[in-house]
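Field reference: sequence -> structure
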Amino acid sequence: MSIARLPRAGQRRLKRLTADNEPSILSDARFFERRPGRNHRIRVSSVAEVEMIRLLHPGNDLTPGMRWYTSVRQIRKGIRCRVFTIGLADLDCDAPEDVCLWVYERGRTNRDAEIETSLRKAMEALP
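Structure field:
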């Protein structure tokens, strides 16, 4: 479901969840600052991210023993894209770059690819 199709209450909730997710976004930024050679990471999805998934994709419930994971791609310092995937609840998130890239690519939808392409073009246009 697109954000525009959410009722007003859903849009307000999404805005609150986005603010609640700020610590995860900052965590991603710190991860890439500490690891300048990395462009991808995998982490357990935050509570706010899981609630966003439920809000935007109702009925997308997890099978017992599974959990949501967030794959993050840093396009440029300060510019990151996230995709969400489901995996076993006990997966190790301390994966090397190539594994994180693979998971990100596997979880990315056509719409995610379009957004990423638009962001890359916008970044190329900057001085």
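Note: The CA atoms of residues 42 and 71 lie 4 Å apart.
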